Amino acid sequence: MKDLVIGVDCSTTAAKAIVWDAGGRAVSEGRAPIELLSPRPGWYEQRARDWWDAASAAIRQSVAAVVPERLAAISITHQRETFVPLDESGEALSNAIVWMDERAAGQVDSFGALFGRERILGTTGKPPCVTPSLYKMLWLRANERALFRRAVFADVHAYLTLRLTGELATAVASADPMGLCDLRRGDWDDDLLDAAGLDRQKLPRLVATGSVLGRITGDAARATGLPEGIPVVAGGGDGQIAALGAGLVGPGRAYLNLGTAVVLGVVSPTSVTSLAFRTMAGAQPGTFVLESDLKGGAFTIEWLLERFGGGSSAADLDRLAGPLPPGAGGLVAVPYWASVMNPYWDDEASGIVVGWTGAHGPGHLHRAILEGIAMEQRLAIERMEPAAGSIGEIVVLGGGAKSDLWRRIIADATARRVVPSGTVEATCLGAGILAAVGAGLHPDLVSAVRAMTFLGEAIEPGPDAPRYERLFREVYQPLYPSVREILGRLAAFRRAGE
């Protein structure tokens, strides 16, 4: 009896594989780390082979705990915008360039001027910035010409699909974040490709999210322990797939993924574009996700632990920060450690911490970062609601959702109900939901979401919410705009010394 599915999440730091039953219960799981390389300041790379090694190891671990014949299908979700140049045999020509890489700032400006910034936004749903793959491909065109001419460019989904099925194919919801798609048509945009010096032969075949794009080959079966021949169901980028795992199939409720990047999104039945957010192809064909993306999310907390933690854990810092009052004793952080996307789209932005006194310690800084990330979500929600409608509830997921303190701060700072997802691995569950529908365990996506997702206990805004309202309006909201020009000068000064 084939009654189980596997969701694979190949994220920036690890590959996770979880076996799910038709009721959304995790049966077994596996995990393997992925190394992040930084050969130069602002450059972030990975070895694509590490994606496969980690994913296959994680799948083997999860499959080892079940009867393989029960497995009906597998689906993939993954870090977005990361891509690798491949040769004609599917081997990597260089390291993959990761979504957080900043080397292509010059290409953002030049291509935006050439093609038109408003035209890019209207076509792709994403204004020019260093995150989409397009601009890093243009960087390769300018700086690695021989490689660019030879390469076929694969996102993480396409690379893993090639290893699993022998087919170089990817889902529309995986390709769309690359910045090369016509959002409304769900296809590569030929005008963008032509302007970038690309053509369809240099990119994977596109298939609709949720459709079967291939079957497990004998080689892949031997590498992973999966049964040969089971279907691989097209997945999508981690942001859109997280919406499924959080139970979102319509507007009115947002998901908030507290991962390496902090991503907030709401499902929309129509494609709306704005500088206030970026628009993505939804996991359900014909839907869209209006999304805020803070690249310096839990990454900022990891930075604090690594550089100044002295061996402390995030839980240790939570214990220090918990008793402190809202506002961290007068310390405020704007968490642009990895620049800022919406609503400012400023690749030269950097983190801000103001209000330091001799009374402050690591707990104050930790709380200020948690509060800053929470207030950034309020900024995003308030600018998103005119297009998305009222957002009264936030479903939190990801590793950061384990923190009771952070969930409470988010509820108070956003003045909205916060509900934890039934699993912190909601992204992986979203892939499992797609696999379950593709395998016929549920008749459609909405039925599968209802059957396989559940939520924890809600947290309502508490008595500290008015104090956060004042902090947001009087300090946080005006802080970055007031120093934006100075941060631009500082970025120029830094570049001159490199």
Please summarize what this structure is.
Helix content is 40%, strand content 21%. The protein has 498 residues and is α/β, with parallel strands linked by helices.
Chain-wise SSE layout:
Blueprint: E1 4-10, E2 14-21, E3 26-33, E4 45-46, H1 48-63, E5 71-78, E6 83-86, E7 96-97, H2 105-115, H3 117-124, H4 133-143, H5 145-150, E8 152-155, H6 156-165, E9 169-171, H7 172-175, E10 181-182, E11 187-188, H8 190-196, E12 205-207, E13 212-215, H9 218-224, E14 231-237, H10 238-245, E15 253-258, E16 262-268, E17 278-281, E18 288-294, H11 298-308, H12 314-321, E19 332-334, E20 352-354, H13 362-388, E21 393-397, H14 404-414, E22 417-420, H15 426-438, H16 445-452, H17 465-497
Parallel strand pairs: 1-5, 5-14, 9-12, 15-21, 21-22
Antiparallel strand pairs: 1-2, 2-3, 4-7, 6-8, 10-11, 13-14, 15-16, 16-18, 17-18, 19-20
Plain-language structure description:
The protein starts with a strand and ends with a helix. Helix 12 packs across helix 13 (about 360-390) and helix 13 (about 360-390) crosses helix 17 (about 465-495). The protein has two domains: about 5-240, Nucleotidyltransferase, domain 5; about 250-420 and about 465-498, 2-Layer Sandwich (Nucleotidyltransferase, domain 5), CATH 3.30.420. The chain has helices at about 50-65, 105-115, 115-125, 135-145, 145-150, 155-165, 170-175, 190-195, 220-225, 240-245, 300-310, 315-320, 360-390, 405-415, 425-440, 445-450, 465-495; strands at about 5-10, 15-20, 25-35, 45, 70-80, 85, 95, 150-155, 170, 180, 185-190, 205, 210-215, 230-235, 255-260, 260-270, 280, 290-295, 330-335, 350-355, 395, 415-420. Strand 15 and strand 16 form a beta hairpin. A six-stranded mixed sheet has the order 3-2-1-5-14-13. A six-stranded mixed sheet has the order 17-18-16-15-21-22, with helices on both faces. It has a two-stranded antiparallel sheet with strand order 4-7. It is built from 17 helices and 22 strands. The radius of gyration is 22 Å and the shape is globular. It is α/β, with parallel strands linked by helices.
